[in-house]
Design brief:
Elements (H helix, E strand, L loop, with lengths): L6 H9 L10 E2 L2 E2 L2 E2 L1 E2 L8 E2 L2 H15 L3 H4 L12 H8 L6 E4 L2 H12 L8 E5 L4 H13 L4 H4 E4 L10 H11 L3 E7 L11 H10 L3 E5 L11 H4 L3 E4 L13 E5 L45 H17 L1 H25 L4 E3 L12 E5 L3 H10 L2 E2 L1 E3 L3 E4 L8 H16 L1
Parallel strand pairs: 4-15, 7-8, 7-9, 9-10, 10-11
Antiparallel strand pairs: 1-5, 2-3, 6-12, 11-12, 13-14, 14-17, 16-17
């Protein structure tokens, strides 16, 4: 659609937004008596207003019931994670048996790598991005070393062509084919944390499977951002956090996906009581009998307090619908891109947006290279009540989140950015 650089245009877009009322369900930080422009939901989502009451419910039940809260709380703690399963499955496009809410992101990645990184003979290599979120690199390297191998020649990291900022899809497929029977696992992010590039989960998975490798994805920047179809796209596993686009609080509980074709397989896994068949869990028998679902990877009982916040957030996603959220996101981020491109043109190409323009290759986030005093621009934006973030040496990241950001936020951002350039 055609955008116009006026407040009236932004307000008209907001008036026609069917999701506009969700904004009222969140707490916004304040700056000089008004809401900040909050474009850092890709790092930490805003707090749902209903989160405090959800936490109070569990605290009150704990005070009132003590240990009996496991079975007699309003939301019984023993099975609390089960209340999150259906919503989580809808969110990532999976069957309910394929998902479990547990632990935190990198813990889940490690648990899944136990099952899906099984180096044998010459098939030992892991293919990933040159710059995924560092925690992924640490996990891959430590898993490789755990198997007695050298990460220096076993972890294969792809980087863009010289002079480019994103990985070409055809280069990823070509590298998978080149590694062939040396490849044990392909594991990418759903969306790269630095560039905002969204990867082709279906295509990468199919290419990995053709050469006999497993495929997994870290969806930290994709869950709640993209309209995922994990079951149909077919990756072997995936994991995600809940504190970014899923608005479930700092350090919030995470999620995991295991494709149904592996649920009855005799895969190695680290076992714990909560992964044991719940029908027999209290028999306290010595031998482990796994749940017939992704819950078999769950080793510990539910962390109820963070799950209480996550339950609120998932209920919001159920009401909004990920398809509607994604449709708004494409338009909202498109408006932001148009705004930045206009300001850059006014300032002799000061900004270079490195996030792919095609909606199939990007989510809510835009990453821009800033020529000149980029850090100063970021600091002046912050001083004006604009929350985005800076990644050294020259990348400014911003993510208008469709659940709570508005088109007026984008217009106000444009005004603040012009002012930040001039100082």
């Amino acid at each position: 659609m055609a955008f116009v650089n006026t407040l009236a245009c932004a307000q008209d877009l907001d008036a026609r937004d069917p999701l506009r009322n969700f904004r009222d369900e969140f707490h916004f930080p304040q700056h000089e008596g008004r809401e900040v422009i909050y474009f850092t939901g890709n790092s930490l989502g805003l707090q749902p207003k209903a989160a405090a009451d959800a936490l109070k419910q569990e605290m009150d039940d704990w005070a009132r019931l003590g240990v009996e809260g496991h079975f007699h709380a309003k939301h019984p703690w023993y099975s609390y994670h089960e209340e999150l399963t259906a919503s989580s499955a809808r969110l990532v496009g999976a069957k309910e048996a394929e998902v479990v809410v547990m632990n935190q992101l990198t813990s889940n990645l490690h648990f899944l790598l136990v099952s899906f990184y099984r180096p044998t003979g010459k098939r030992v290599k892991i293919l990933t991005e040159k710059r995924p979120f560092p925690s992924d690199t640490y996990a891959f390297a430590s898993q490789i070393a755990f198997h007695g191998l050298d990460p220096a020649n076993t972890l294969v990291e792809m980087q863009p062509r010289e002079g480019e900022h994103i990985l070409r899809p055809e280069d990823i497929i070509a590298r998978i084919n080149e590694l062939g029977d040396e490849l044990a696992l392909v594991c990418f992010g759903g969306v790269n944390f630095l560039t905002g590039q969204a990867f082709d989960i279906k295509g990468i998975t199919a290419a990995a499977h053709r050469v006999g490798a497993f495929a997994g994805f870290d969806l930290a920047h994709a869950a709640g951002n993209l309209d995922l179809k994990l079951h149909d796209d077919g990756p072997d596993f995936a994991c995600w956090c809940s504190y970014k686009y899923l608005n479930s609080g700092p350090g919030g509980v995470a999620g995991a996906f295991v494709h149904e074709r592996h649920l009855s397989a005799d895969l190695p896994r680290f076992a714990g009581w909560w992964g044991h068949d719940k029908k027999e869990r209290f028999k306290m028998e010595r031998d482990f009998k796994p749940m017939p679902t992704a819950e078999a990877w769950q080793v510990s009982n539910a962390p109820v307090l963070p799950m209480a916040v996550h339950r609120v957030a998932l209920e919001q996603f159920d009401r909004a619908g990920i398809e509607r959220l994604r449709a708004k996101s494409v338009q909202l981020t498109g408006y932001l891109r148009w705004t930045i491109e206009g300001i850059s043109a006014e300032n002799i190409g000061m900004f270079n947006i490195i996030t792919p323009k095609e909606s199939a290759m990007s989510g809510a986030q835009l990453s821009i290279l800033v020529r000149g005093d980029g850090r100063g621009v970021f600091e002046r934006l912050t001083a004006r009540g604009v929350y985005c973030d800076w990644r050294e040496p020259d990348v400014l990241r911003m993510a208008p989140v469709p659940m709570y950001n508005s088109f007026e936020d984008v217009w106000r951002f444009g005004q603040a950015l012009r002012a930040a350039i001039t100082g």
